[in-house]
Amino acid sequence: MMDVLNIMNKIDLQSEVNELHADICSALADPRRILMLYVLAEKNLNVSDLAAEIGISQPAASRHLKIMREQGLVQPFRNGASVEYRLSDHRLIEALDLLRSVLRDRLRNRANLAEVIE
Predict the structure, then answer these.
(1) Contact 88, 44 (CB under 8 A)
(2) DSSP 88
(3) Comparing C-alpha atoms, which of 48, 21, 53 is closest to residue 37?
(4) Domain limits of the chain?
(5) Cα Rg of the chain (Å, integer)
């Protein structure tokens, strides 16, 4: 009976990890949110300044920040009268950079394939 419980616990844990993984990937599914993470990796900003930095409206920036906050990608903090945001874990940028490296390799392979076809 104990083995069955251990197996069930492992399955439940794996399912929860997969769900969290999917949630984070979903939060990263918008290019504006990815850009916001890169900006916040460089400096903490309030919603208005972040919106201006990436060229979107303040309400749109607020919606994106809400999604990223819910997934733990960014953290709000008070700075005087303003609420600013910061990246919650700089390993996110390392992960994004790794993905970009994979994408660059794929683009190079496609370019090489296009040259071979011509």
Answers:
(1) no
(2) S
(3) 53
(4) 2-89
(5) 19
User: Would you state the structure tokens that stand for residue 95, as one six-digit string?
Assistant: 């992960």
Strand partners, 84: 46, 77
- What's the maximum distance between 2 C-alpha atoms anywhere in the chain? 64
Residue 8, pLDDT > 70, answer no
pLDDT tens, residue by residue, 20-61: 999 999 999 999 999 999 999 999 999 999 999 999 999 999
| Residue owning tokens 């208005």 | 48
- Which of 96, 86, 77 minimizes the C-alpha distance to 29? 96
CATH number of 2-89: 1.10.10.10
CA–CA dist 26, 30 (Å, integer): 8
In 2-90, where does DSSP find H-type helix?
A: 2-27, 31-42, 47-54, 58-70
Angle (CA) 45-48-54 rounded to 5° is 80
Residue 115 binned pLDDT confidence (cut-offs 50, 70, 90): confident
